[in-house]
Design a protein that fits this description.
The chain is of the alpha/beta class. It has 18 helices and six strands. The protein folds into three domains: 9-197, Nucleotidyltransferase, domain 5; 202-290, DNA polymerase, domain 1; 305-374, Orthogonal Bundle (DNA polymerase, domain 1). The protein has helices at residues 15-25, 63-66, 70-76, 89-97, 109-114, 124-132, 152-163, 165-179, 182-191, 217-237, 241-244, 247-256, 271-290, 305-325, 329-332, 335-343, 349-352, 361-374, and strands spanning 9-12, 30-38, 46-53, 58-61, 82-85, 105-108. Strands 1-4-3-2-5-6 form a six-stranded mixed β-sheet, with helices on both faces. The N and C termini lie far apart (53 Å).
């Protein structure tokens, strides 16, 4: 199989070139992909480069110069095609925020490697070295991908971040099949294709502020309105939410009053935009004060001392089982999941399978052991 250093590279900067690349990719059953994006001073990450590779093709697509990415969208959503990414979450967010469809099928090499004995967050460079014997020079890890023209160093960096994925995937598939973890890895990869993971509804923005559980009802009602207004403003003005006001600001306004909006940075905004944002947040504050009852969030009952001890015991047991099975412990259990299993108060092994995040391969392989710890 050609490596990233022997395959010819193509930089697509025009619609005709993109169409040719799409036609070539349409003939492949599996396509490796990576993305480069810009997010420093914008609300959502902006797609700036798409790197694509098959065993015979390595192409870099410049969406800022190609215009419509419809040819790429057509092959992205085909359910029979597998798209190979490493640590796919960031790339999937960029695709979804850019209006492109999520892939019809996904193979995340970082997730797959965690089922083969590598650490849960193994880097692309480490995996490429271990599986393909190549050493990658990270020469453009911090760069402005929106600036044009792209330098030869940027293009080399972008190409190497996708070029060895096909060969890495072949090796990982063999290891997964030998170890009996292929179906579990595919299940984990498929779970990443849920669009709700990447969509932010302004009305639910308050749930991402950790302090909301500790607020009295009146302050929580204000916080809910402020958080929704801040999110909507960030989208409209295309600025990071923290540039309007960080979470500490919102909580402080909700508790003390927001007449002066103390501490709001309003970074890189015109005088007119700042005035507009202040007015919108003042109106949100007033709406919150007029609310008698805040919206209810998900319940999170606190564990008593004995329950915390049991949750720790469960977590330790599951991580031991994962290590014995040759997979990264974090793939099987996290502290949050252990607490979720305990709070479920499942009356039977079958009910335990209904706990979010535990169904599927986790329950099939380790449900009995978890049940024994919880009821031992």
């Amino acid at each position: 199989m050609p490596t990233s250093s022997t395959r010819p590279e193509l930089l697509a900067r025009a619609p005709a070139a993109l169409r040719w690349v799409a036609d070539q990719l349409a003939q492949a059953n599996a396509i490796a992909m990576d993305t480069e994006f810009y997010r420093d001073d914008v609300y959502a990450p902006q797609l700036c480069l798409v790197q694509l590779a098959t065993p015979t093709l390595l192409a870099l697509v410049d969406p800022l110069q190609c215009g419509s990415l419809e040819p790429l969208a057509e092959i992205l959503e085909a359910p029979e095609r597998i798209w190979i990414l490493h640590s796919a979450k960031g790339d999937l967010e960029v695709l979804e925020r850019s209006g492109l469809p999520l892939p019809g099928g996904l193979f995340d090499t970082q997730l797959a490697a965690a089922f083969c004995g590598w650490p849960r967050h193994v880097s692309y460079a480490e995996l490429a070295h271990d599986l393909c014997g190549v050493s990658l020079a990270k020469t453009a890890t911090r760069t402005n991908w929106r600036r044009r023209p792209l330098s030869s160093a940027q293009l080399r960096y972008a190409a190497q971040d996708v070029g060895d994925l096909p060969a890495m995937t072949d090796a990982l598939y063999s290891k997964l099949e030998d170890r009996g973890w292929l179906e579990a890895a595919e299940e984990e990869c498929a779970a990443l294709l849920d669009p709700s993971l990447w969509r932010v509804e302004p009305a639910d923005a308050w749930l991402r502020i950790k302090a909301w559980r500790s607020l009295p009802s009146a302050a929580l009602a204000v916080l809910q309105e402020l958080a929704e207004s801040r999110e909507s403003l960030a989208i409209e003005l295309d600025r990071p939410v923290r540039w309007l006001a960080d979470d500490r600001c919102l909580v402080g306004w909700a508790l003390r009053g927001g007449d002066k909006l103390e501490g709001a940075p309003f970074r890189r905004m015109s005088t007119q935009q700042i005035a507009y944002a202040r007015d919108a947040l003042h109106e949100a504050f007033a709406r919150g004060q007029a609310q008698r009852n805040p919206r209810r969030g998900p319940e999170k009952p606190r564990l008593n001392s004995a329950e915390r001890t049991l949750a720790d015991t469960l977590l330790a047991e599951l991580r031991t089982l994962a290590t014995q099975a040759g997979i990264a412990p974090e793939m099987l259990a996290t502290r949050r999941l252990a607490g979720r299993l305990l709070r479920a108060r499942a009356g039977s092994l079958a009910e335990l399978a209904e706990v979010p995040g535990w169904s599927g391969w986790r329950h099939d392989r380790f449900g009995t052991q978890a049940w024994q710890v919880l009821n031992g």
